[in-house]
């Protein structure tokens, strides 16, 4: 259980800092972090980190397509956790 918690902590810290770095790069008009990278990290457990970065840095919050994809991944995660908790997966 501790390994799983450390894993989630690590992934969330990584995605948080990458999203912050992406915002920094956006302000400087430099090379950005691909959205698919952020979505991949969200999908493997970085949802909280990405959400916190979005709110704290006000990053990607006005981009509808990003919000929709973020929400879709989050909803899939909720369904998977529910199914796992009810032993249907």
Automatic annotation (TrEMBL):
Molecular functions (GO terms): nucleic acid binding
Keywords: Membrane, Transmembrane, Transmembrane helix
Residues annotated as transmembrane: 6-24, 36-58, 64-83
Pfam family, one: DUF1294
Domain of life, per lineage: Bacteria
The protein, known as: Membrane protein
Organism in which the protein naturally occurs: Flavobacterium hibernum
């Amino acid at each position: 259980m501790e390994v799983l918690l450390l894993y989630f902590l690590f992934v969330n810290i990584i995605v948080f800092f990458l999203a912050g770095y992406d915002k920094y790069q956006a302000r400087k008009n430099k090379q950005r972090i691909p959205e698919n990278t952020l979505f991949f990290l969200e999908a493997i457990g970085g949802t909280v980190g990405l959400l916190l970065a979005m709110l704290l840095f006000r990053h990607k919050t006005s981009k509808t397509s990003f919000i929709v994809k973020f929400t879709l991944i989050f909803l899939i995660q909720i369904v998977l956790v529910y199914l796992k908790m009810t032993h249907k997966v």
